[in-house]
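Entry type: protein chain
Record version: 2
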Amino acid sequence: MMTARIDKQAALDLMRSGESDSQIASRFGTSRQAVNLLRKSLTKAGKLDTHRVETPFGSPTAAVGPKPDDLPPLPKRSPSPRSAAYPTLDQISDWVINLVSMAADARMLQRQNADLTATQASLQAQILRLQQQLKEAQELLFAAAAKASKYENAINGLPAPLPPQQPKH
């Protein structure tokens, strides 16, 4: 059986730089458990000042450097300039205002559409009535045109109607 050799100083440097046990194990071609044992022995010997942090999945991750309680508070930073890729709060509030305004406009346009639809139906009914009246007027006109006039009757040999009588004085 072949055993992999771990350079303890190189592994210590990698642990201090924040490399995980799996990353160190893959570099040296050994198991994660072997690197974990080395980490424990270096911590006991005082060469590695570290504490373990549990991840959400339960696998330990090495935290390198001083413990969080030993760190000085972070300096207050001024807000960094926002990326153009992310909208600002003002832009978002403008969008919400515009959205509400557009919703009100949509309701108004729906009401106008309903009114115009009713007006259109009324106008179409009126057009149908007028078309019917026009048809009836044309029929009367054609019937009157087909009726023979007094001149046509005279030409055809029928007596002409008598003219109205003049009163005698």
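Comment: The chain has a mean pLDDT of 78.
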